[in-house]
Amino acid sequence: MTAGAVAEHRGPVRYLWWLVVSQRRRAAAGSVLGTLSTVGQMLPPYVLSRAIDDGLAPGHWSALVAWSAVLFGLGMTNSVLGTWRHRTMTKIRMDATIRTVRALVAHTLRLGAALPRQVSAGEVVTIGIGDVAVISQTLTMIGPGVGSVLAYGVVAVLLLDVSPLLAAVLLLGVPVLAVLVGPLLGRLEGVEARYREREGGLAARLTDLAGGLRVLNGLGGKEVFAQRYGQEARGLRDEGYRVGAVTSWVQALGVGLPTLFVAAVTWLAARMAAQGTLTVGQLVAVYGYAAALVVPVSFFIEAGYDFTRGRVAARRVVRFLNLRPAGRGEQPDGRGGQPNGQDRQSDGRGEQPGGPVFREPPPVPAVLRDPASGVEVVPGSLTALAGERPEESTAVLDRLGGFAESAATWGAVRLDAIDPVRLRARLLVADNEADLFAGTLREVVCGRRDRSREAIDGALHTAAAEDIVRGLPAGLDSPVAAQGRDLSGGQRQRLRLVRALLADPEVLLAAEPTSAVDAHTEAAMAARLHAARAGRRTTVLTTTSPLLLDRADTVYYLAGGRVAAVGSHRELLAAEPGYRRLVTRGAGEEAEAAG
Question: Cα separation of 595 and 589, whole Å?
Answer without folding.
Answer: 10
